[in-house]
Amino acid sequence: MKHISVLVPKGAATLSCIEGSFKAFNIVNSFLQEIGKAPMFKVQLVGLDHEPQVYDSLFKVQPDYSIHDDFKSDLIIVPAVNGDWKKVIEINKDFLPWITSQHETGSEIASLCVGAFILASSGLMEGRKCSTHWLAANEFKRMFPGVELVPDKIITDEKGIYTSGGAISFWNLLLYIIEKYTDRDMAVLLAKYFEIEIDRYDQSRFIMFKGQKEHEDEQVRRAQEFIESNYKDKLSVEQLADMFALGRRSLERRFKKATNNTIIEYIQRVKIEAAKKSFECSRKNISEVMYDVGYTDTKAFRTTFKKISGLSPIEYRNKYNKQAALV
Q1: Largest Cα–Cα separation, the chain
Q2: Half-sphere exposure for 228 (CA within 13 Å, toward CB)
Q3: pLDDT score, position 299
Q4: pLDDT at position 198, please?
Q5: How distant is the alpha carbon of residue 31 from its chain centre?
Q6: What pLDDT, on the 0 to 100 scale, is given for residue 199?
Q7: Which of 43, 49, 51 is nearest to 66 (CA)?
Q8: CB atoms within 10 A of CB 209
């Protein structure tokens, strides 16, 4: 039997991550019993102490164990905890050495959504790929520069350390782990039970690009603002460098350091974000939107759009614009 330890952190934890994890493994147990097999999972709630935590001012969660008790963990699940990240990590800091020691003795670890901030604070993610909610990507990169953030991915698996993308995409990670621990048929059955789309690995289509402006490089910030105000035009690195009286290499280096994007990537993302918004709320065709955001090469537009959003322009329009899909 595998022991699944779901953390009960202090602060504003996302209750659905705790409840969802608890239900998923226990429902698999019930499926197994229905076909005459023994339950495979023991799910236990683990707190910093034995005191219940209250979430959303309404729901009380009582830990079964504290980190000071003697119990077994084959998988530790770190749910999302929201708020000021430094404060969140501080009030839950005693989890960190415990998570590390558990991993050293064989436990696998999975963070759900922004639970990645707590997991990364343990040091276990250094040099490893990690996903989290795309809204928190810039802050995560700033706090954990040694972690390889892949915010477009829903699931990462780094030899038994798992992370998931944002919000309810944590269900896709749970399905992935359950398939690994049981088999494909059981994962498919659970996906059908909860009506979850299985084998979803990419969250690119949900990302809304917001340029990182929480830095102190005023010239880079002005360059960002110029790009965002003039995305319909043909923009170049040389043009921006001349505008701000900087050498090209100097501007590129400073821009990348401040925004985590190259200048070309930033221009592309701003253009594609504008195109996405147009597809969502207008009846314009692909060519009209393409020209509106400053592209003249259809192939380049389609390639860049799919690379950033995960969908082709027509797929994106049909998915997010009800009226356009009816045409």
Answers
A1: 74
A2: 12
A3: 95
A4: 84
A5: 30
A6: 80
A7: 49
A8: 17
Residues ≥6 apart with Cβ < 8 Å to 45: 5, 6, 7, 8, 18, 22, 61, 62, 63, 64, 65
Which stretches in the chain have pLDDT values below 70?
323-327
Q: What is the pLDDT of residue 177?
A: 96
Pick from 209, 198, 131, 117: nearest CA to 163: 131
Domains of the chain and CATH, by start: 2-206 (3.40.50.880), 218-326 (1.10.10.60)
pTM here? 0.74
pLDDT of residue 202: 76
Rounded alpha-carbon distances, angstroms, from residue 24 to 16, 42, 174: 11, 11, 7
Question: What is d(CA 108, CA 75) in angstroms, rounded to the nearest whole number?
Answer: 5
For the record, the structure tokens of 291 come out as: 């020209």
Distance CA 192, CA 223 (A): 48
Read off the DSSP letter of residue 166. S
Looking at residue 114, what is its pLDDT?
95
